[in-house]
Specification:
Keywords: Membrane, Transmembrane, Transmembrane helix. The chain is mainly alpha-helical and about 80 residues long. The protein has two domains: about 40 residues, no CATH class; about 35 residues. Helix content is about 80%, strand content about 0%. The longest helix is centred in the C-terminal third of the chain and has 32 residues. The chain starts with a helix and ends with a helix. About 0% of the residues are buried.
Length: about 80
Amino acid sequence: MGLSGRERRILAQIEQALEREDPELARRVAAINRIEAVGGLPGRPYGDRARLWALAHGWVILAAGALVMVLLLVAVLTT
């Protein structure tokens, strides 16, 4: 559902006030909006692939940590 004309005007006024009062924050919000619109980081058109890559590596790190803990437990129990 889209915004009404009145809601769009109010949002534009809020954006203009933010730009006047805190230009740095307005710049950061605009950068976040650009990232969200593209679906990834600027200059990285593979937003979904990058997320999957990070998720896969997270699971590999988690599995490696679990393996190390199991091996340490086995080493302690067998001594």
